[in-house]
Amino acid sequence: MSDSPLTPSFFPLHPLAWVAAVLAVLLLVALALAWLLAGWLAQPFRQPIGAAPAELGAVAVEIASAPGVVRGWYAPGEPGQGAVLLLHGVRADRRAMLPRALALHGRGYGVLLIDLPAHGESDGEMLSFGPREGLGIAQALGWLQAQQPTEKVAVIGVSLGGASLLMAELPQSPDAVVLEGVFPTMQAAVDNRVRALLGPLAPLARMATPLLLWQMPLRLGIDPERLRPIARLKGMGMPLLVAGGSEDRFTPEAETRQMAEAATDAPHQLWLVPGAAHVDLYQFAQAAYETQVFGFLRQHLQAR
What we know:
CATH architecture of the domain at 58-185 and 227-301: 3-Layer(aba) Sandwich
Order of helices and strands: HEEEEHEEHEHEHHHEHEHH
Distance between the termini: 106 Å
Radius of gyration: 24 Å
CATH superfamily of the domain at 58-185 and 227-301: Alpha/Beta hydrolase fold, catalytic domain
Mean pLDDT: 89
């Protein structure tokens, strides 16, 4: 007996339809994973810090800013030696800069270590990868300059700390800047990290990177195309030292060179640390760091 038009029958899908269905499912899974990952990356990294170590001789400070209160440690230095604002990288806090602070303060510099907004003990509900962090940095720099009105002031910014400094609208420019492992654009930063994470599957970054970046306007109200620290270097007039590791996969050597070359309006230096990945350059090569970076600061900060 033949099937009537109302009798269910099994008709296998065309192979192309199966492929389309599988691709649709994979795309939905990729979107869900990207949404969860981006949400985790934007979560604040806040935690209690505690008192400053006695050997630093610092006091706790609270500085008002647009994202909320920025908290840190401040230790004044010797007259004529200069002062330095120290900015840590993403998902860290002021303690990451403590070894530099101790070494600098031991040489007579005043130091201010802060937790970036949404890090450590500073206020902030979400990481913005530059703009909101820059608001807190601008206030911290102004605060330090007000505390040290007769001193020259420099900034050492590591990774996100340096990128946020470049994207900030500063009321008064510092007298010298050190950038360590700072990404040129947000797209490059995400793409390099995705490639490093995927390893042998790095070609998939062509799909994964856009999936992460398209969420920024939705979550943060920020266009990733506007997050271009390298574009802010051209107008800088103060002395600049750009440092990075020769084996850094997050900010490769070629990008570190591009950052230095972009500072066409300022005296600039490039220091590539042999064998260093995206690590703490001071801890990795302390003697060379003190020669290169501390020598740069001494040259541009100390009164003569």
